[in-house]
Write a structure and sequence with these properties.
Number of domains: 2
Shape: flat
Oligomer: single chain
Structural class: alpha+beta
Radius of gyration: 23 Å
Helix content: 25-40%
Strand content: 25-35%
CATH architecture of the largest domain: 2-Layer Sandwich
Order of helices and strands: EHEEHEHEHE
CATH topology of the largest domain: Alpha-Beta Plaits
Strand order of the largest sheet: 2-3-1-4
Number of strands: 6
Length: 130
């Protein structure tokens, strides 16, 4: 006599390819050791994150990849002093985000005296425009 599977209808595995959706994240860290900081930034770049500041990255990852990234950084850090934060950002908030970029003129323009106002140019972009 065949055995009846008592778990029929209880366990519902997700079909392949139906994992959690990707969300935008901001990852920031404060790591004292130079070598460890460099290795951590390389890990972030390998996960497809874009550097937005020296110790801050932005990108899109699903929940599994975020957890994998956090575990990989944790394994790299081991017993060293480090603080790493990963913040998910919903798409509605991302649409309302603003990016301000301000750059100084290069040294040649300053020496040449072009535009003597002495103020750097300020560029404001909404993230939707990119």
């Amino acid at each position: 006599m065949a055995r009846k599977n008592r778990y029929t209808g209880v366990l519902r595995p997700l079909p392949i390819g139906k994992g959690s959706p990707e969300v935008s994240i901001v990852l920031i860290y404060d790591i004292e050791d130079d070598r460890l900081r460099t290795r951590t930034s390389e890990i972030c770049l390998n996960y497809g994150l874009e550097r937005i500041q020296f110790s801050a990255f932005f990108g899109r990852l699903n929940r599994n990849r975020r957890q994998e990234l956090a575990l990989r950084i944790q394994r790299e850090v081991e017993n060293e002093s480090a603080r790493v934060h990963i913040y998910p950002i919903c798409e509605n908030d991302l649409k309302d985000a603003w990016k301000l970029e301000q750059y100084r003129r290069d040294a040649d323009a300053l020496k040449g005296g072009a535009d003597r106002t002495g103020k750097p140019k300020l560029k404001i972009l909404s993230l939707e425009e990119e």
